[in-house]
Amino acid sequence: MPHNSTPQAARLLVDCLIEQGCDRIFTVPGESFLPVLDALHDSPEIDLVTCRQEGGAAFMACADGTMTGRPGICFVTRGPGATNASIGVHVAHQDSQPMILFVGDVAREMRDREGFQEVDFPAYFGPICKWAARIEDADRIPEYIARAYAVAVSGRPGPVVLALPEDMLADATDAQPRPRIERPAQAPCPDAMQAMMAMIGDAASPVAIIGGAGWNTKAREHFQTFAERIGIPVATAFRRQDAIAPSSPVYAGNLGYGPNPRLIERVKQADLILAVGARLGEATTDGYTVPALDNPEQQIIHVHPDPEELNRVYRTDLPICAAMDDFAECSALWEDQSILSFDAGAHAHGEWEEWSTPKAADYPLDLASCVGFMRESFPADSIICNGAGNFSGWWHRYWRYDGLPTQLAPTAGAMGYGVPAAVAAARRFPDRTVVALAGDGDFLMNGQELASAAQHDCNMIVIVIDNSAYGTIRMHQEREFPARLSATTLQNPDFAALARSFGGWSETCQTTDEFKRALTEAKGREGLRLLDCKIDVEQLAASGATISGLRAKAD
Question: How far apart are CA 52 and CA 293, in angstroms?
């Protein structure tokens, strides 16, 4: 029962979240929203996850929104709390994931005096979210919460930021929560569908690029049915590899960093690109070259739920504004028999199978072999979480992301995402295997969230790829300025000892066999587990790039 000392506005805010289906909140507590924390004390419907840094909390909320399709919820305090959390807002924005960040704000009478930790939050967050506002009137809390959910889940999903003046949270109000908001249906236009089918039927070598805004299980299943029926090769956008089953006979692999050169050539030579959900952003298209901009020999059909994305960068021959699941279902049920099945899908899948089969290399700890062993040992629906860095490329290339969701990875390329995302995944799916991947530089961006994992009894495995370097930057450095190291060498702590200090189990691995033994033992345990994998910095990327090779090219 609500406590009679809890301010009515704060109680109303929490009740509005419960009405919208919120069952988890990630937070670093602050005095600016103490009434909300008090209201949450009497709200067993909501799992309150205490975090150690606002950037980690925001990443957790972003990952939670990715997994549920409903906004992940994060509460932080003003000033440094909000600016720390801004990284998660930016990732949610570029990744098209629903999220709501609530920020405790200065009291209304203190505004515009540069009060303690004061920031103009609508101005600060406006460029990196869908909507940023301040709730000035307690009676309008239901309106703002309902609108925040509607904005976050509709069209291209994304983040919303709401500032909460601390004095407003103490106000009296008789307002009542609004009903649960659902994403509005966005069925594709039948004429556009007919035109699309005709364009595919006329094409000689079409390729689909899928995954992105609003992609869900329904979209995955129906689009796979459609793609397999017509035999079109299907590539996934950058870090959207769970958008289609890897076992699908038309799955052609992933675009982004370090893709199969044969897939790149296939996309370049395609006479028709069917982009579904993907923004066709810089990472997916390798700097807007795959596919090329304004190629008169290549038609583009772009399907996206946000009309502002259509024709935004790429010249689009047929734009279709629709929700991913509605479009995919319509495609799967379309009865037009004018499309003759392509055999290119099967060929492309064979090329991906060859590319994604690990081939042993002569390193003491060979990451390709390690991923191959992990693939054989772990469940197919394991959730793999990673931040940014070359280390992730081995899993992108060799792991099979089977099931949705199985890949939590920022398309925005933010470091420090993997461990917080794994905490969110372990709370959301406690019965599934959850693995956080992190480079040594990446890990220390948010490694403190091991404390959150331990405090909240998270079952998760952390694999740290430890080469004592910012590996990705070292690779670029060696290419541009060979043998002239500057700021990319790291002196690391004992990561295994660090994990044990949080109450976790850990092992240090220096060879492939040691990795296999440690991974097998970790699989048999529960709770927090960490493998510190020492690798030679020479082993730079899954593409085969090495320091010696880059230096040789420069000579």
Answer: 44
Task: Give dist(CA 163, CA 554) in Å, integer.
Answer: 52
What are the structural domain ranges in the chain?
8-170, 190-353, 357-554
Query: Closest Cα partner for 76 from 99, 108, 43, 109?
Result: 99
What would the pLDDT profile of 280-297 be if each residue is shown by its tens digit? 999 999 999 999 998 999
Could you tell me where the DSSP H helices lie in 42-79? 54-68
Q: Distance between CA atoms of 121 and 61, rounded to whole angstroms?
A: 19
Q: Are 251 and 245 in contact (CB under 8 A)?
A: yes
pLDDT in tens, 356-380: 999 988 999 999 999 999 999 999 9
Of 414, 439, 394, give the one whose Cα is nearest residue 63. Answer: 414
Q: In the block, which residue shows the tokens 């089977």?
A: 402
**How far, in Å, CA of 407 to CA of 396, rounded?**
9
Domain 190-353 has CATH 3.40.190.80: no
Beta bridge partners of residue 25, listed in sequence order:
48, 73
pTM of the predicted protein model:
0.97
Does 405 sit behind a cis peptide bond, omega within 30 degrees of 0 on the bond before it? yes
DSSP 105-129: E--GGGTTTT-TT---HHHHHGGGS
| Half-sphere exposure for 182 (CA within 13 Å, toward CB) | 3
Indicate the helix (H) or strand (E) that contains 142: helix 141-153
Strands (E), 294-397: 299-304, 318-321, 383-386
Rounded CA separation 288/295 (Å):
11
Burial profile 119-132: b = 16 or more Cβ within 10 angstroms, e = fewer: bebeebbeebbbbb
Given this structure, which CATH class describes domain 357-554?
alpha beta
